[in-house]
Specification:
By secondary structure, the chain is an alpha+beta fold. The protein is 28% helix and 17% strand. It has three helices and three strands; from the N terminus they run αββααβ. The longest helix is centred in the N-terminal third of the chain and has 18 residues. The termini are far apart.
């Protein structure tokens, strides 16, 4: 049986740079659209800008993102960030010593 060529997926996180205000935001979105067109089908999910973050660990809940590299991700649906944090307080990854960062996806 021949081996299949399997494409690896990559989560690209955007660090720093911030979201621009109205006119600059439109330019940034246009530039992103041009880049997305350039990479074509390699862009499996364009994602969304991220907003507020909270980290959940065995030591408690803290504002902001966790230190260290991202080891994986899940997508949750919740009414607000506090509700999302409630959903992961007892996540088994935290029990193994890991930390979870809850990030709000910002609608375009």
């Amino acid at each position: 049986m021949p081996e299949e060529d399997v494409m690896t997926s990559y989560l690209v996180t955007y660090d720093g740079g911030g979201m621009r205000e109205t006119e600059g935001r439109q330019q940034a979105m246009a530039a992103f659209g041009a880049w997305a067109g350039k990479v074509g089908d390699a862009l499996a999910d364009p994602g969304a800008p991220l907003g507020a973050a909270m980290t959940v660990s065995a030591g408690g809940v803290h504002p902001g993102a966790a230190d260290g590299p991202v080891a994986g991700y899940s997508v949750l649906r919740a009414d607000d960030i506090e509700s999302a944090v409630s959903l992961v307080r007892d996540h088994p990854f935290v029990g193994r010593g890991g930390s979870l960062t809850v990030l709000e996806a910002v609608a375009p």
